[in-house]
Specification:
The complex is a heterodimer of chains A (115) and B (116). With 115 residues, chain A is mainly β. Chain A is 0% helix and 49% strand. In chain A, strands 1, 3, 4, 8, 9 and 10 form a six-stranded mixed sheet that branches. In chain A, a hairpin with a 6-residue loop joins strand 3 and strand 4. Chain A is globular and about 45 Å long. Chain A starts with 9 loop residues before the first strand and ends with a strand. Chain B is built from no helices and eleven strands. Chain B is mainly β. Chain B is 0% helix and 53% strand. The chains are: A mainly beta (115), B mainly beta (116). At the A-B interface, strand 9 of A face strand 4, strand 5 and strand 9 of B.
């Protein structure tokens, strides 16, 4: 059930700044990682993914970094815009066998971009 | 791109009644779908894996008799919350993959359930 008093980490930035959102994952066997954006009342929206044989991947205005040694992911958003304001989740998965698609989500970070 | 549709997007029901939520893949065949639950200000938690033509696989702590899942076709999975209670009020989200281990994951827009 709901945990009373639970607060998501927050990040507030000015429009145009770069944003960095961090995530620690738990399972050393995970080999596929995804970042999602979730706006209020909507489902998760895919941003970018990375597999464990890579340590960096770039998309349009976004970059994901993976550090398997310390089980850490980060999402960098360049030139952050007000439309980027949302909750951001990392998700981990074991892509082989029957586990593919069964995502374990991180706690999420609220990003607020001020004009 | 592929679209996963959920219906209804929001529903209010009385305590003790049952509610069915549909998850449809609109332009691809989804052999496997997943159901997640998200309480306010929390993350998504996987409830179960729905496989076309076979029984769903439930995560630990999820009551299979309370959350009935049916995946009768390659484009439709349903989640029925039986004898709903206020603590079942949540955001229920499905996702789907087309091909095992290689298909992209697609999420629905979620269904908000409020039990009075």
């Amino acid at each position: 059930g709901e945990s009373v008093g639970l607060h998501l980490p927050t990040l507030s930035v000015q429009e145009g700044d770069n944003s960095i959102i961090n995530c620690a994952y738990s399972n050393s066997a995970s080999d596929y990682f995804i970042w999602y954006k979730q706006e209020s009342g909507k489902g998760p929206q895919f941003i970018i993914d990375i597999r464990s044989n890579m340590d960096k991947r770039q998309g349009q205005r976004v970059t994901v970094l993976l550090n398997k040694t310390v089980k850490h992911l980060s999402l960098q958003i360049a030139a952050t815009q007000p439309g980027d304001s949302a909750v951001y989740f990392c998700a981990e998965n074991i892509s082989g066998g029957t586990s593919y698609g069964k995502l374990t989500f991180g706690q999420g970070t609220i990003l607020t971009v001020h004009p | 791109g592929a679209v996963v549709s959920q219906h209804p997007s929001w529903v209010i029901c009385k305590s003790g009644t049952s509610v069915k939520i549909e998850c449809r893949s609109l332009d691809f065949q989804a052999t496997t779908m997943f159901w997640y639950r998200q309480f306010p200000k929390q993350s998504l938690m996987l409830m179960a894996t729905s496989n076309e033509g076979s029984k769903a696989t439930y995560e630990q702590g999820v009551e299979k008799d309370k959350f009935l899942i049916n995946h009768a076709s390659l484009t439709l999975s349903t989640l029925t919350v039986t004898s709903a209670h206020p603590e079942d009020s949540s955001f229920y989200i499905c996702s789907a993959i087309g091909q095992l281990n290689t298909g992209e994951l697609f999420f629905g827009e979620g269904s908000r359930l409020t039990v009075l």
